[in-house]
């Protein structure tokens, strides 16, 4: 995915960004007094099952865990698939970008009234071995084009949460692209189910803890 972000991350009134009927229904359903979070799975929707799309695989597992795996809605206004899920008193907007990740994430955040601090990016990480998970607030893109695009379009380099799923770095630098865009080996595929479960647990625990934390004072 490219790193460029066309247009402002959060459009001003009258900029021509209007939600579709599907998005309007989603926004109207967000009535809970609890906190709201956007969780975006990064990857290539045209290459499911590849290492680069492991973030999308985690998002799919998250949707299954929350009982919304059959509730995805295609929305053209943010070029993504969306699903809405409750999590206690909080609400999650699950997002699968279909084109430029940064534009999709920023447009969805704007439409749902979310700040960069309320966005989670789930992505693959070359510099962590397969099975290694990490979740942190802020930080750089570490060479990931999709994350870099989101940081640019959200106008925030340190605020959003990043959940990294290790895919391992190949020994030879010339094979990195093929490794990232390639499919998991049979041996690696055996590790995926528990890895997706662990990543889902990590996300849900983190979001629930932040949802229950007292809001900062003025």
UniProtKB/TrEMBL annotation:
What keyword terms does UniProt attach to this protein?
Hydrolase, RNA-binding, tRNA-binding
Q: Which Gene3D superfamilies match?
A: Peptidyl-tRNA hydrolase
Q: Which reaction does it catalyse?
A: an N-acyl-L-alpha-aminoacyl-tRNA + H2O = an N-acyl-L-amino acid + a tRNA + H(+)
Q: Which Pfam families match?
A: Pept_tRNA_hydro
Q: What is its EC number?
A: 3.1.1.29
Query: Matching CDD domains, A to Z?
Result: PTH (cd00462)
Extract the InterPro entries matched here. Answer: Pept_tRNA_hydro, Pept_tRNA_hydro_CS, Pept_tRNA_hydro_sf
| Enzyme class at the top of the EC tree | hydrolase
Listed GO MF terms = peptidyl-tRNA hydrolase activity; tRNA binding
The UniProt entry's sequence similarity note says: Belongs to the PTH family.
Describe its function.
Peptidyl-tRNA hydrolase that cleaves nascent chains-tRNAs that are not stably fixed in the P-site of 60S ribosome-nascent chain complexes. Acts downstream of the ribosome-associated quality control (RQC) pathway to release non-ubiquitinated nascent chains from 60S and 80S ribosome-nascent chain complexes. Does not act on ubiquitinated nascent chains, which are cleaved by ANKZF1 for degradation.
Instruction: Write the protein's name.
Output: peptidyl-tRNA hydrolase
């Amino acid at each position: 995915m490219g790193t460029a972000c066309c247009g402002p991350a959060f459009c001003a009134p009258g900029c021509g960004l209007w939600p579709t009927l599907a998005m309007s229904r989603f926004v109207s359903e967000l009535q809970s007094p609890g906190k709201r979070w956007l969780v975006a799975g990064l990857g290539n929707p045209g290459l499911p099952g590849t290492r680069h799309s492991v973030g999308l695989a985690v998002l799919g597992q998250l949707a299954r865990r929350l009982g919304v795996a059959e509730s995805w809605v295609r929305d053209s206004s943010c070029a993504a698939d969306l699903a809405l899920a409750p999590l206690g008193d909080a609400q999650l907007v699950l997002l699968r970008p279909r084109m430029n990740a940064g534009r999709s994430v920023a447009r969805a955040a704007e439409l749902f009234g979310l700040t960069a601090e309320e966005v989670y990016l789930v992505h693959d990480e070359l510099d962590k071995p397969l099975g290694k998970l990490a979740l942190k607030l802020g930080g750089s893109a570490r060479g990931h084009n999709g994350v870099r695009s989101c940081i640019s379009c959200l106008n925030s380099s340190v605020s959003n949460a990043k959940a990294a799923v290790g895919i391992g770095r190949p020994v030879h630098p010339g094979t990195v692209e093929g490794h990232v865009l390639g499919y998991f080996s049979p041996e690696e595929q055996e590790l995926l189910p528990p890895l997706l479960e662990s990543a889902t647990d990590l996300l849900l625990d983190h979001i629930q803890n932040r949802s229950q934390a007292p809001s900062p004072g003025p």
